[in-house]
Every structure is written in C-alpha cells, then in structure tokens.
Amino acid sequence: MTKLLTLDEVAAYLDRPKSWVYGNWRRVEIPFRRIGGQLRCRPSDLEQWVDRQHV
Length: 55
Fold this sequence. Notes:
Blueprint: H1 7-14, H2 18-24, E1 33-35, E2 38-40, H3 43-52
Helix pairs in contact: 1-2
C-alpha cells in the first residue's frame, strides 16, 4: 500500500510554498483527491503530473 502525500509533502516535493500549491492546485490540475476534507495525492500521480509539465 502506498502512502498518500499531504499538501505539505506535495509542496516540499515541488519546492513551492504550501500557499502556492493550495491556491493553484485546481488551476494547474495537481492530482489531489479530497479525503475526509483534506487534500491527498498519490505519489505516482504526482510524478506523472510533473512529467507532463512544460518547462
């Protein structure tokens, strides 16, 4: 079983402030899911999202 990433962990992975991730996750389509009112993300989904980003 893979541990789901929290908002803080996603921000650290992306090297972005937590406020940026939370404020922009829908617009930039970070693959979060709401679980119990909190945002969570599968590590594999996040890696795929990063791979699809244009630099």
